[in-house]
Specification:
Blueprint: H1 3-17, H2 21-42, H3 46-62, H4 73-91, H5 110-114, H6 118-126, H7 130-141, H8 146-153, H9 157-179
Helix pairs in contact: 1-2, 2-3, 2-4, 3-4, 7-9, 8-9
Amino acid sequence: MTADKRDTEWKLVKQSLQGDHSAFELLYKSLSPKMYAVSLRYTHQDQDAQDVLQEAFIRIYKNLKQFKFNGSFEGWCRRIVTNTAIEALRKKGRMKENSTEVLPDLPVDPKSFEKLKYDDLMKLVRALPDGYRSVFNLYVIDGFSHREIGEMLGVTESTSKTQLYKARLALQKKVLETIE
């Protein structure tokens, strides 16, 4: 992120904190497409992603005074969107997975992934079951540890590892089907 973009965001946050609703609207318009993409990574359907996005921006607005102005506002928002999406999935009871069965790896040539376009790969990720998709996103894309994921999702660290393993296995199968 450039210093100019950060300074612009921080200025809009400060104006929003002073009651300037048009400043928050500008923040929303600039960030909502990216935050929608984050939301969609965790949810399965467009309507669910829109619901999460709306709830997340309400939380962002209500908690704006907690932003510390020492990092990326976009990153701060991304974390709120991620937590909101996970909470929505947890409320629907779609996060628990306690299976520890051992599954074999499928050999997938790493070059196979190069044949897929980003959008095609993200469609495959979105097609994963909720628990697998959430752990995959949190671990692979957002960089959380299994301990952190377990705390966020209310599952054990080993359940997080198992869900990631199953997510990767499912993606390998889908990639093989897609490129054949």
